[in-house]
Amino acid sequence: MILHIENVIDRGTLSVIRDKLAKAQFTSGLESAGWAAKQVKNNQQIRAPHPLIDLLHKRLEQHELVKVAARPANFVNVMINRYDQGQAYGTHMDDALMGDTRTDLSFTLGITPLSDYEGGELVIEDSSGERSWRLEQGDVLLYPTQFLHRVNPVSKGSRIAMVGWIESVLREPQQREMCLDLYTAMRQEFEQHGKTAQFDLLSKTYNNLLRRWAKR
Ligand SMILES: O=C(O)CCC(=O)C(=O)O
Ligand SMILES: [Fe+2]
Fold it and tell me: Which residues does the record give as Fe cation binding sites (predicted)?
């Protein structure tokens, strides 16, 4: 399950953040690339701890859909990256372990308005082919870290985003999808009909499934 979540961060906040980032010191993206990914990574980044990363990270962590869809146990390597004109990140796999943390999900949060750059698609490959996203400012793509993926060359302007990885209490993508679907059905039943007998059964099953699968 790949989720595109819109408007996770409001535009006012992002505009202030972009002003600050214009003056911030970025370092080479090679610092955090795995030994094979180094061959294809060409960008700049700011790594945590950093006040702007803290602020965005907190907002992301508090977002209801992020909480329910990802069930985060830990976040790791949250960083802000920038691809200037001509820069890209070729096809690669992200490391399964970053320090002690298992990477179950990856996310990208768009910071630059789409109209300010061209290219820079995030492309995810699977056996059926590939799919690409250009994320509007404030939008998040949340995806299992299991796919080969790349960032296409930026052909005009610069693309700034925040990326990072999540270790989930639900290790398997299918578990996360089933829990999210059940949760969604339970919420809809509650909103449409109130706390019915059906709601109680959905709630019972949802919570017992989550309890059965959750590992921390
Ligand atoms: O910037 C992105 O959207 C993804 C970057 C990426 O694949 C990575 O940093 O490993
Ligand atoms: Fe990656």
Answer: 92, 94, 149
In Å, the largest CA–CA distance within the chain is 58
The CA-atom distances, in angstroms, between 112 and each of 26, 162, 170, 193 are 16, 10, 31, 41
Query: The tokens of 46 are what?
Result: 């700011």
Surface-to-core class of residue 97, CB atoms within 10 Å of its CB (0-12 exposed, 13-18 middle, 19+ buried) = exposed
- Please tell me the distance from the alpha carbon of residue 160 to that of residue 72, in angstroms, as a whole number: 24
CB of 163 within 6 A of ligand 1: the answer is yes
Domain of 68?
3-168
| Cα–Cα distance for residue pair 183/195, rounded to 1 Å | 14
Mutate which of 81, 93, 114 for ligand 1? The one with the most ligand atoms within 8 Å of its CB, which is: 81
Q: How much is the ipTM here?
A: 0.99
77: left (phi over 0), alpha (psi -120 to 50) or beta: left
- Are residues 114 and 194 located together in one domain of the fold? no
Q: Are residues 178 and 160 in the same domain?
A: no
134, 184: one domain? no
pLDDT digits over 62-108, tens only? 999 999 999 999 999 999 999 999 999 999 999 999 999 999 999 99
